[in-house]
Every structure is written in structure tokens, then in C-alpha cells.
């Protein structure tokens, strides 16, 4: 997930935003 985004250097801004969103989703998913 995040590795794929990080390995795409052509969209630094978008990758940071997407990584943040994905991280938030993972945190939400890990909540009981």
C-alpha cells in the first residue's frame, strides 16, 4: 500500500496525502 505510493516520486504531494489517508484508515481499521 504505502510502499507503492512512496515508490512513485512523480507525485510527492499526492503520495504524502494518500499515505496520510491510508495511515488514518489503517488506524481506524485497527480500532476495536
From TrEMBL:
- Give the source's domain of life in one word: Eukaryota
Name of the protein in question = Uncharacterized protein
| Species | Streblomastix strix
